[in-house]
Design a protein that fits this description.
single chain; 388 residues; alpha/beta; Rossmann fold; Heat Shock Protein 90; 3 domains; five-stranded parallel sheet; 45% helix; 20% strand; elongated
């Protein structure tokens, strides 16, 4: 068994929350001290806080310790040049957004290379003072806009998380109390009272399910979800979910079947059983909800690298205009069926965390097929951190 944590900081926007009135910090990197001194002098007159580094390695170390608001980076340096510094910064997810202004004396192809690697702007040597100040101001406006966007997003996510936690406690208490009432703990119920309590219990459970889904979505999106990886038998898991949902299929006179020719040893994946069960339950539950005639089929297939689980229904289908947005949060499409719009988004997060894919193929009036593809055990890293 392996536990893996999806990477994330306790406070993803901690770098945004302090010193709102401080001057913008700029790191100037050039292997020639005279060049660093010249740019430092020019920008300090504009009120910026300037620090310098004389090599790519020193720049990366300073950025790792305390990321600046803007990086002015000479392209040609011995050792780690400006291109490599740019590449490493853009490939490091732990570095918050950092605008990079390349300083170069070279021709157009070198500029194209720098921009392709992730630089935001460039300026040619010899540096024109007015142009330098204008580009610095432009990139700092970009930096502050991105930081403000991230701060608002973090506040929204934090609000949702706190609200969901606060709602969950009274909902659980209400659920237990309603069950006690339903069982007659406080006296015998009349038929009318029993029916009313059943409606309240069902509504409370729906709300609790919504709150729990919100919390799960938040954990995945914030990188705070821990998966427990162990061998999972997809045949057994699919049969378990089918048995649970068969009464719902019978209520609608729908068939619900598993088509599988795989031997048990071929149907194993390395994954979190609870989370994969959640995905299959979501996909089957949706298929049954949107199917009024015919039925739903689960199909299992395998090749040397992947296992595929497909859920096919004969329901109303999904319009082509809705398909690009189907896995987005709170997307419900143009239908009148009840739902939160969280199930498919959460399922997509779960499958991505397992390094798999979730895809849909649908025709209006004919039905839909949702296909989950998961790596075979030998292909899936065990005990490593993965991003949701």
């Amino acid at each position: 068994m392996h536990s893996i944590s999806l990477p994330g900081q306790l406070n993803p926007c901690a770098h945004l929350l302090g010193h709102p009135g401080r001057p913008s910090r700029i790191l100037v990197v050039d292997d020639l001290p005279d060049n660093c001194f010249l740019i430092q002098t020019l920008l300090q007159e504009e009120g910026y806080e300037i620090s310098t580094a004389n090599s790519g390695a020193e720049a990366l170390e300073r950025i790792h310790q305390s990321p600046p608001d803007l990086l002015l980076l000479d392209v040609m340096m011995p050792g780690i040049d400006g291109y490599e510094v740019t590449r490493r910064i853009r490939q490091n997810p732990d570095i918050p957004f950092l605008p990079i202004l390349l300083i170069t004396a070279h021709d157009q192809p070198s500029l194209v290379r720098g921009l392709d690697l992730g630089a935001d702007e460039f300026i040619r040597k010899p540096v024109d003072v007015d142009e330098l100040v204008a580009r610095v101001r432009s990139l700092l406006r970009l930096k502050h806009s991105v930081d403000e966007r991230d701060r608002i997003a973090y506040q929204r996510e934090d609000f949702v998380s706190r609200l969901a936690h606060d709602l969950r406690t009274p909902l659980i208490a209400a659920d237990r109390m309603l069950h006690l009432l339903e069982e007659g703990a406080l006296g015998e119920l009349t038929p009318a009272m029993a029916e009313a309590i059943e409606v309240m219990l069902r509504s409370n459970q729906n709300l609790l399910h919504l709150v729990n889904s919100l919390l799960e979505v938040y954990r995945y999106e914030a990188g705070r979800k821990t998966l427990v990886l162990k061998p999972v038998d997809l045949i057994e898991l699919a049969e378990e979910v089918i048995a649970e949902l068969t009464p719902l299929a019978q209520q609608k006179s729908l068939s619900l079947n598993l088509l599988n020719d795989l031997p048990a040893e071929e149907a194993m994946v390395m994954g979190d059983r609870i989370e994969l069960r959640r995905v299959i339950t979501n996909l089957l539950g949706n298929a049954l909800k949107f199917t009024d005639h015919g039925g739903v089929i689960i199909t299992l297939q395998a090749n040397s690298d992947h296992l595929t689980l497909a859920v096919t229904d004969t329901g109303q289908g999904i319009p082509a205009t809705d398909l690009p947005y189907l896995f987005e949060c709170f997307t419900q499409g143009n239908h009148r069926r009840p739902g939160s719009g969280l199930g498919l988004h959460l399922s997509h997060c779960i499958i991505e965390a397992h390094q798999g894919t979730l895809q849909v193929d649908s025709t209006v009036g004919q039905g839909s097929t949702f296909t989950v593809t998961l790596p075979r055990p030998q292909s899936l890293p065990q005990g490593e951190s993965v991003s949701a």
